[in-house]
DNA sequence: GTCTATACCAGGATAGAC
DNA sequence: GTCTATCCTGGTATAGAC
């Protein structure tokens, strides 16, 4: 791993656990075993470092949204969407925790990452003749957020909860 | 309004909009038109100020949870719980936004405010003979969080979404 | 690409007068 | 209770050498 990557992943871990503002570049440098100056050489500013993390994370997250977008069976789309939080690998949890934190802290980061998924869900509900496909899709997003909160914040096992929700849709 | 209260409400507004860490005591002092020293006289530290805000807010929030705890009809308990986010008066929105932000930022603040409500909901579902009352109660909490997010963060009108959820329980 | 040294500012907090 | 003035630390960021 290059020092640049090293800085990026160290910063991600610290931002996720203590928050962006209360993590100092000093600390990132120490934990990553690099000089503080190097952070600024590579990323320009602390904010630049944060952006690099987001960009990297978004591209990773596409990798588990893409497969759902490719599905044809509407029931399968709904099912896989609900299972999404459970299917995110542990190594990506830090990134998602950071993103959820930022969402509340700095509205700029309210994520468009899920826009395409919402559209897909809307279509799925429409083809299943639900009365209000848009709202139903929004509700699935609420489930995703809720399950993510359970997993990321309370470190709970969301398996049962996921199953309960799937049952409600007879999936 | 005393200067002390003035500091408290000004800080609440700033913390809610920009986050705790990136709001300086300097700024609070300016916006509240008091000297910076006064903040520390009254609250000891910036952290102390935050605590005062939380304590004040928690006591307010009891005022809309209490009425639900007093209900006897289980269906009514569920209904009113789901309507909770919609029923929170606009003037309390800032406080809730702050609390949701802190929840992700500093786990200490993961709120026990709703513990009693969760118990009440569990009983309600049990008396309605639901298979898994605990999980069902947890799901209602997810609805509450989701609706709160819609209202507080996206400033959306959660009326339709609330109705959709109520329909699912035939309420 | 990387480190060392350092500038410079803003943060929280305190002292002392009124 | 309140203000003014001030301290000190630690934050981000830059310069210059290797």
Describe it:
The structure is a homodimer of 171-residue chains. Chain A is an all-alpha fold. Chain A has a single domain, classed as Tetracycline Repressor, domain 2 (Orthogonal Bundle), CATH 1.10.357.10. Chain A is 73% helix and 0% strand. Chain A has helices spanning 3-18, 25-32, 36-43, 46-69, 74-82, 84-87, 93-105, 115-127, 133-152, 159-168. In chain A, helix 1 packs across helix 4. Chain A binds a DNA duplex (18 and 18 nucleotides) through helix 3.
Quick structural gist:
The first copy, chain A, has about 170 residues and is mainly α.
Q: CATH H level of chain A: which superfamily?
A: Tetracycline Repressor, domain 2
What is the terminal-to-terminal distance of chain A?
Answer: 42 Å
- Main beta sheet of chain A: none
Number of helices of chain A: 10
């Amino acid at each position: 791993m290059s020092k640049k990557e090293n800085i990026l992943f160290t910063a991600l871990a610290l931002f996720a656990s203590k928050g962006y503002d209360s993590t100092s570049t000093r600390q990132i440098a120490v934990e990553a075993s690099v000089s503080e100056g190097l952070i600024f050489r590579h990323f320009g500013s602390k904010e630049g470092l944060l952006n690099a993390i987001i960009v990297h994370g978004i591209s990773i997250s596409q990798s588990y949204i893409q497969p759902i977008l490719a599905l044809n069976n509407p029931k399968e789309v709904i099912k896989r969407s609900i299972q999404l939080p459970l299917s995110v690998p542990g190594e990506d949890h830090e990134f998602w925790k950071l993103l959820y934190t930022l969402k509340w802290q700095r509205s700029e980061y309210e994520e468009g990452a899920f826009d395409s998924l919402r559209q897909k869900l809307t279509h799925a509900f429409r083809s299943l003749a639900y009365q209000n496909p848009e709202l139903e899709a929004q509700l699935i997003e609420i489930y995703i957020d809720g399950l993510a909160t359970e997993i990321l914040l309370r470190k709970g096992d969301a398996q049962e909860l996921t199953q309960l929700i799937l049952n409600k849709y007879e999936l």
